[in-house]
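# step 3/5: fold
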Amino acid sequence: MKKFSLKVFTFFALLFFAASVSAQDPIWTEDFDGGLPDDWTAIEVAGDNSDNSNWVWTDVGATGTTAGATPPLASATAANGWMIFDSDANCTHEVQDAWLMSPKLDMSANAVVRVEFSQMYRRFNDVTLMMVSSDSINWTEIPLGPNLTANDYSDGSSNAASNPHIQSVNISSVAANQPEVWFAFRFLSDATTIDGGTGGFGCAYSWQVDDVAIYDWDDAPTIVFGDFIFYPPLSYSTPVSQIKTDTFGFFADISNTGTEAQMNVEMKVEVVDDGDGSVLFTGSTVLDELPAGTADSTVFIDGSFAPELEVGTYSINYSVVTQESPSDLDATNSASLPFEVTENVWAKEPAPTIVTRPGGEPVDWAIGNVYKTSSDWVEEYQANSVEWFSQVVDGTLEGVRVSIILAEVKEDEVLPNWADFDTDISFITNPGLTLRAFHDFEFTTTDQGTFQTLALEDFNEGTTSVVLKPGNRYILIASYEGDYKETLHGFNDELDTQQTWSTVLYTDQWYNAGFGTDLTAVLRMSIGLKGVTDVKGRTLPDESLTFYPNPVNDKLNVELSFEKPELANVTIAELSGKVIKIDILKNAVNETRQYDVSGLAAGTYLIRVATEEGSKTKKFVVVR
């Protein structure tokens, strides 16, 4: 028997790299002391060749008719002057295209190249650009204020809140490790740059620039998430009847990539209802200090979340910041992980994004998703159907065969952490599994790639659907063998669950992380109530379930009455048995509950209470 904590079937190579952080002094500076330096170049690409149609040195700022709308640049070295392109002073309504180009610089020893500068700028039918080149012929364009509109200042304000506004531009994609590098400040106003201002182009405000510096370190937040951010739900999609006992815990790896210790570092998580934006849970952990150079330190959030949720979409939002700068969030120090609660569908993914199979010489293989039922059942639920996505490289799927299997884990023999699961034996004869459904399916579609749905039948009983056990793990499997082992299966590669025993792979053995935790298989399972009528001899008294009003418009008031404390399931469902809402009550005797049915369409529905003693099912009507 083979025991392990993580196994990933590798069919591609991963490259890792490390970046070092140098001292934070600039490696090059220019403050335009007294005029345009000899090694800088002011280029008028398009204009009227007047005194104001190019970049010039100034120590007073804008001089056009709207000079008061852009105050003089208050840079750190403003006393010795700065550079300006004064569009308003050159208000000819002709194209203005002027470049302020740096000297040639040697960045061959610098893996990071970042330009920082002070500016005063207000937009009006123009754009400002950073141009970068490694040969002075071919230039890469970097917009400096892509979200600004007419009359916005460069800091995004409407009142020049920042003077100077210091902007940072990482030009490493072009300049890193290059022996020859040029960069330029480009002002452009033409027919393509009109952004809502009246009067056409070629008569904007001005752009004032000073204190240009180059750094060889990245100024992105130094407190960042590592590669591991835990995805708490067992599945991306969980039926409403199964979600309530899937308790969420939260943890992630964080790093300090800077050269200084960071104090009062807070990692925070929120669970948010995407429907109305309400925050359902907030938790945080504060570290007094995160030393410089700390890499992938695992931090756990205090507390857990019991997801007593209704059908809908939700987000788990992680962030890590210092308490002194709580709003400085970007993709490096924040993450939003989606999940959903469905009426009846289990899924590990929102949609297929890629198809794949094991690499190398084709082998028989199987992919599976692990689903776990809720532990607080007194109802009986059954697996009704499955859905998956297959594709072939050439031709169509017609005639291709796949085996669809539902295997039940023997909970009294397989530990919760799977440590004693025999990883060498397939699903057919594995002593830790019982086959509950086995279908040899042949595609009849001529599509190249398609979703397929299949109704399940119990392998042993021969009956429609498979009755599920509470608190039990199941593996839904698609197996491709023999002539069909080159068939591709659908996966999602956009949601890294960081979980083992979620999507699993079997080839020569079981791989509990499949192709990697960032590939989740498209293997979905639909469930429902086994029955929606009360069983003779196991019917609860009529007074065990009463409710009002009926018909109802928005709030249904329900009263429960039992002779002794009971584990009770209150279920609202469609007449077909599709579950809409479930409420799990422990030690219930006399309970009053209120359920919001305002989102239901007009019609007749079931309300049902079940205990270990039996059930009582009644109908109510929603009116609109």
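# step 4/5: annotate
The longest strand covers residues 555-573.
# step 5/5: archive (pending)
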